[in-house]
Amino acid sequence: MDAIDALQVPKGVVEQLKSCLEQALVAVFGEAFTGTDPMLGPTSNPKFGDYQSNAPMALAKRLGKAPRAIAEELIQQLDVSEFCLPPAIAGAGFINFTLKPEYLEARLSAFQVDDRLGVEAVKKPKRTIVDFSSPNIAKEMHVGHLRSTIIGDCIARILEFQGHDVLRLNHVGDWGTQFGMLITYLREVCPEALTTADALDLGDLVAFYKKAKQRFDEDPQFQEQSRQEVVQLQSGSKETLRAWNLLCEQSRKEFQVIYNLLDICITERGESFYNSLLGSVVEDLEKAGLLVEDHGAKCVFLDGFQNREGQPLPLIIQKSDGGYNYATTDLAAIRYRIREDHAKRLIYVTDAGQANHFAQVFQVARRAEWIPEDITIEHVQFGLVQGEDGKKLKTRSGDTIRLRDLLDEAVDRARADLESRLKEEERHETEEFITHASQIVGISAVKYADLSQNRTSNYIFSYDKMLALQGNTAPYMLYAYVRVQGISRKGNIDFQNLGSEATILLREDAELTLAKHLLQLEDTLDAVSQDLLPNRLCQYLFELSQKFNQFYDRCPVLQAEEPARTSRLMLCDLTARTLKLGLSLLGIQVLERM
RNA sequence: GGGCUCUUAGCUCAGUGGAUAGAGCAACCGCCUUCUAAGCGGUCGGUCACUGGUUCGAGUCCAGUAGAGCCCGCCA
């Protein structure tokens, strides 16, 4: 087969093999086996080939035959010669498939002119909302916002690349009791901040917030005033709204500094956006017969949730003072996102501590029949960021770490490391180079360290580990990319112009291993867009870097004779482009030199 | 008391119901006259918390036990 055929069969290898197996199952065992899962996956060990089917063992009971006999019959009816070597039966009844070098060569050669590197855009794009980051107005962004921001951005990037229509929403905390207490406090001690722009910077605001919170916790009268202020806000008092607006504007500027640093694009649509819709949420829940008044508050009592005394737990929709809280806002947001934004997939990226809250809100929305069957709603939760002592990450003095400081330190450390290496190697680089490289390495390291862990577990934050040059880190991968660019500089190679005759030839094991991995990008992205676990993409890119480094170690490129030389140059270029694309989906930029 | 998440090598962590459970770090041993050694190869390292169950097959699914973290009525 040649490159043209490969282009006409654009489906992933796995899909092709699966459908061949499905056809064989029907051909051998009859129509009753239509739709039987062929149980195809990558092999558990490269010595078994590339893919394995476990179907014979699964079907043994149903067919009353030995697995190996079933495998034998299946193979007879199976024609995969287009892309595989003859399949082999092994062990208890596994069917092992090994891809033909010619097939790999043809597929990869086609990637040469494909910016998407073989990854097809989805046929049915879904309107998807990714709700992430969500800092609170009047507070500084801190470590707690790190994971939501990084993971949410990554998920959005991947879904966008797959062709989905993604709306990235920043559900900022710009409403609620905390706001009331801040305005109440400022009215007392710094009234000009409520009427004049830039009267305070965010640092002051944060200090005031802390004091306000203190007052709120110990002074019942202050509490009451704060609640009243919230009611004023919610009912649209002009003066309060103006003060509120000034505070928001101040915070917004500061958030943007962080988002620029992290290269994050997001649309702000805070809690306040849903303010005018809260009343109808209450009304509709009332109509649906879900609302119960208890101690003056309007609640929905939940199925499967209890308080300490074993009583059913309420979700409070409207407080006894008439104010609304976050559950109400989240319910309004669900409705708005489905009815007005026409979202088909709703994704919330917040910490695991909010799992109860979302489970409760989703339950109420379902019982109110606001979530149609064809719409999925997911809480993408993640664990705590912990210090190296295993406790919640804090500064030495016990304060919360500002996100800004955390990122600055990562960049500073990357810079110190780079400078010491330059000195050691007696290299001289411009200030511009050093600044840029440190910036990319530092920020990438923070992002990659976070994304490379399974998000559901807590994660231990360590500058030393994330900035390490060895292992599963951003610098290791950036270096693999830089190595390719080094080859092109050394050999004066223009990867865009390797000639129309250029073809990929896979002769060495290291070449074959690398080639097979390059072909798995699509499957990897499919998996990530389903389970929303970015660490799988990280794992893929890490393995790609390892396989490239092995190839680099064993196969000379520039010194090789033609046609191997051009073929290897193509493999280098494909690797670099795959790394660049993959890292970009993690929100990480590459460097040409480092 | 209830709920959620977790428990895998000395450390940090992967692991789609399938074959002999993997990686990185740390430790130790090798490899630069050859494209950046920020690399590559090798050695050492395991009662997958425990007990049952489902299954042809369980680290993976179910139940229970123990331990850790987080959450649990008017904050978000």
Features:
globular; RNA-binding; 4-stranded antiparallel β-sheet; 5-stranded parallel β-sheet; 11% strand; alpha/beta; 594 residues
Percent of residues in helices comes to 40-55%
Low-confidence runs = 1-10
Shape: globular
Strand content: 5-15%
Termini gap: 42 Å
Number of strands: 14
Radius of gyration: 29 Å
Could you give a short account of the major beta sheet? 5 strands, parallel
Total DSSP helices: 21
- Which structural class best describes the helix and strand composition? alpha/beta
Strand order of the largest sheet: 7-6-5-11-12
Give your account of this protein's structure.
The protein is α/β, with parallel strands linked by helices. Helices cover 52% and strands 11% of the residues. It has helices spanning 3-8, 13-29, 55-63, 67-77, 101-111, 143-161, 177-189, 202-218, 220-234, 238-262, 278-287, 326-339, 355-367, 403-425, 431-451, 463-466, 474-491, 509-518, 521-531, 535-554, 564-585; strands at 40-42, 51-53, 88-90, 94-97, 127-131, 165-170, 267-268, 291-294, 297-306, 312-318, 345-351, 376-382, 385-386, 459-460. A five-stranded parallel sheet has the order 7-6-5-11-12, with helices on both faces. Strands 1-2-4-3 form a four-stranded antiparallel sheet. A hairpin with an 8-residue loop joins strand 1 and strand 2. Helix 8 crosses helix 9 and helix 14 crosses helix 15. The longest helix has 25 residues, at 238-262. The chain is globular. The model is unreliable at 1-10 (pLDDT under 50). It binds one RNA strand of 76 nucleotides through helix 3, strand 9, strand 10, helix 13 and strand 14.
